[in-house]
Design the sequence.
């Protein structure tokens, strides 16, 4: 196991009606003028924004609204939010929604207290200072409610990049599983896929002797395989949604990723798809994960065989471990299909003739060196082959 520092100070408030505590939590973390930042309308339609606003008002907090965050959030609204925060002297940002609203809130939080262009953070500068952020989560997926990360699409070029820093870890996150019951089945499934991807990206490691985190990841994958189909069959199943919501947080706050190298090639390869075609991030991952795994499997066939046996219940073929490894990848692919995810480029709305653009954005965009690195290093030809797969 590698040396590590793990700092994860987010306060999680979990359960039914927990959004009614928003006002008290903002107060506890020092906010008095709050920007409520949300998406395209689901939180307005459900009455959630009104309830959150009422809770803030009851705590004597002044609030401002900025809605309109698109899935795969864009730089334009971030600039708008930064201006609003400076003008209104906002001291706390409360994101209400999914990964997109939370990531946009984090970008605004970092950009407001920074003299330069906020995009600097998405070109590699670590975030060391930001306005405090809280979240009310409405979809289990990205894990941004417990992560130090934010992913934004730059409209000038349409590529997606991530920024990171403990300063943007939420001060608190309100997790009420009942709020996810209004999700369309497709979004629920895309979220399940993203959570499983966060687990696999950590499972694919070159670090030896990481039994504790291996076993934690396997437990969370087994939970998703059990609860995913239950919630697709019965969207109002609170208990299944509760297990998925906490698994989604655990999958990405990095408690399962400490002390080990991680992959993230599948995420980077997917991000160019959701940037160019505006597809759901999870749907893009359902297509890219099996392709990447098939392509890189021989780098450590025993690792793929291990997850196949321990998580997917495959029989180990000791003479031919690659057979077991492939079987596990196929079971993962079939699982995604069974919950309603796309299986290929065509179903995702992607086009083969765009592969050169995708590869250029992925490997060269924003000063990248022509390769991406993780479990293995992939060059432009590798990435083109993976998109073709
Ligand atoms: O915008 P509204 O109207 O709210 O609709 C959203 C959106 O259309 C809808 N939705 C959310 N909660 C709902 C609901 N509809 C009905 N009822 C509810 N309760 O669902 C759609 C998707 O929302 P979004 O916030 O985009 O989903 P998600 O949480 O999957 O976030 C995706 C973004 O997160 C990034 C992705 O790249 C993508 O841009 N990621 C962020 C990470 C991080 N910060 O740590 C890590 C991830 O790997 C990921 O890359
Ligand atoms: Zn993800």
Sequence:
């Amino acid at each position: 196991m590698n040396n590590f520092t793990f700092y994860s100070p987010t306060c999680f408030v979990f359960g039914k009606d927990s959004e009614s505590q928003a006002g008290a939590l903002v107060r506890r973390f020092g906010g008095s003028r709050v920007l409520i930042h949300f998406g395209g309308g689901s939180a307005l339609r459900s009455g959630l924004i009104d309830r959150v606003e009422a809770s803030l008002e009851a705590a004597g907090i002044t609030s401002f609204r900025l809605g309109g965050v698109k899935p795969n959030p864009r730089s334009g609204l971030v600039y708008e939010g930064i201006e609003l925060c400076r003008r209104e002297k906002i001291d706390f940002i409360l994101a209400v929604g999914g990964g997109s609203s939370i990531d946009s809130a984090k970008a605004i939080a970092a950009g407001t207290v920074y003299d330069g262009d906020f995009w600097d953070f998405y070109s590699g500068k670590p975030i060391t200072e930001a306005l405090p952020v809280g979240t009310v989560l409405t979809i289990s997926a990205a894990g941004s409610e417990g992560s130090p990360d934010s992913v934004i699409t730059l409209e000038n070029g349409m590529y997606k990049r991530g920024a990171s820093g403990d300063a943007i870890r939420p001060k608190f996150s309100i997790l009420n599983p009942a709020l996810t019951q209004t999700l369309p089945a497709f979004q629920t499934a895309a979220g399940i896929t993203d959570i499983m991807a966060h687990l696999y990206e950590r499972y694919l490691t070159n670090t030896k002797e990481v039994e504790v985190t291996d076993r934690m990841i396997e437990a969370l994958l087994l939970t998703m395989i059990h609860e995913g189909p239950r919630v697709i069959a019965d969207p109002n199943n609170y208990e299944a949604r509760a297990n998925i919501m906490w698994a989604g947080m655990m999958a990405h706050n990095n408690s399962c990723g400490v002390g080990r190298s991680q992959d993230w090639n599948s995420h980077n390869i997917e991000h160019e798809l959701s940037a160019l075609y505006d597809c759901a991030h999870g749907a893009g991952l359902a297509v890219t994960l099996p392709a990447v795994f098939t392509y890189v499997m021989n780098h450590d066939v025993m690792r793929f065989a291990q997850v196949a046996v321990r998580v997917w219940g495959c029989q180990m073929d000791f003479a031919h471990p690659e057979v077991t490894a492939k079987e596990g990848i196929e079971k993962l692919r079939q699982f995604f299909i069974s919950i309603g995810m796309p299986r290929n480029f065509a179903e995702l709305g992607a086009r083969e003739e765009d592969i050169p653009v995708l590869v250029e954005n992925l490997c060269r965009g924003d000063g990248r060196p022509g390769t991406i690195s993780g479990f293995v290093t992939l060059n432009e030809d590798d990435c083109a082959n993976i998109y073709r797969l």
About this structure: Residues 142, 194, 197-198, 267, 281 surround zinc ion (ligand 2) (CB under 6 Å). The radius of gyration is 20 Å. Residues 211-233 form the longest helix (23 residues). The chain has a mean pLDDT of 97.
